[in-house]
Amino acid sequence: AQSVTQPDIHITVSEGASLELRCNYSYGATPYLFWYVQSPGQGLQLLLKYFSGDTLVQGIKGFEAEFKRSQSSFNLRKPSVHWSDAAEYFCAVGAGILFGNEKLTFGTGTRLTIIP
Amino acid sequence: GAGVSQSPSNKVTEKGKDVELRCDPISGHTALYWYRQSLGQGLEFLIYFQGNSAPDKSGLPSDRFSAERTGGSVSTLTIQRTQQEDSAVYLCASSRRSLAGAIGGELFFGEGSRLTVL
Predict the structure, then answer these.
(1) B102 has a pLDDT exceeding 80
(2) Sign of the alpha-carbon dihedral angle for B40, B41, B42, B46
(3) Would strands B10-13 and B113-117 be described as parallel, antiparallel, or unpaired?
(4) Cβ of A31 under 8 Å from any chain B Cβ?
(5) Is A44 or B104 the better-scoring residue by pLDDT?
(6) How far is the alpha carbon of B83 from chain A, nearest alpha carbon, in Å?
(7) Going by DSSP bridges, is the β-strand pair A10-14/A110-115 parallel, antiparallel, or unpaired?
(8) What's the CA dihedral at A88, B2, A34, A92 to 10 degrees?
(9) Is some CB atom of chain B closer than 8 A to the CB atom of A113?
(10) I want to staple B23 with a disulfide (CB 3.0 to 4.6 A). Which of A68, B68, B75, B83 is the partner?
């Protein structure tokens, strides 16, 4: 069965500093991977996704993520965070999408706090 | 509407009562999903609709949970005889096509319905 681990429950970063949020997945084949952001009072919004090809994917709001098969990881990065990036971030895997399985498995999320 | 609309935004109920949660997806979106977000937990898949059909109900926790979708649009999630462990935020998402049909497209989420069972 597919699973997703986000080891960091809460991360605090200074505004302007770089950010890396960790995500590890468990699945035998190449999964479809997603990062979503949930801002207070808003629904989840897709930041980026990976299916195949270039392992470094670019997303919205200046975020990027790199798929590393050897490490079963899909870490999210941003070179310089802004106060508006404070939110909850969720990594998700869709292991069976190619076979018609519509279920996404989400991690437990990482709450990002930005300090001045 | 412009986005996925869910109602009520907050619902407090007593144990044993039935509740209905409504989701109005983005117009034209054929795929609709229900997820549950409990405190400290990730999102838990409940059910997926394609049009009015539910090909995957595998995530519904028990037979107290049911969902329907009418007219290929609005969906209602019903929880009968609510229990305290049902307390959570229930999220609805829609997509123009299924994840498989659009090679992993994009889900658009509503703000959720927060259910508290006393």
Answers:
(1) no
(2) negative
(3) parallel
(4) no
(5) A44
(6) 23
(7) parallel
(8) 60
(9) no
(10) B75
Q: Do A43 and B111 touch (CB under 8 A)?
A: yes
Q: Does A80 touch chain B (CB under 8 A)?
A: no
Q: What does the DSSP 8-state code read for residue A31?
A: P
Confidence at B96, pLDDT banded by 50, 70, 90? confident
Instruction: Kindly give the parts of chain A with pLDDT less than 50.
Output: none
Residue B84 to residue B51: CA distance in whole angstroms: 32
The single residue listed with the structure tokens 């407090």 is: B12
Burial class of residue A52 (count of CB atoms within 10 Å of its CB; 0-12, 13-18, 19+): exposed
Is the separation of the CB atoms in A35 and A87 below 8 Å?
no
Q: What percent of chain B has pLDDT over 90?
A: 74
Rounded to the nearest 10 degrees, how much is the dihedral formed by the CA atoms of A39, A65, B91, B59?
-160
Residue B39's pLDDT is: 83
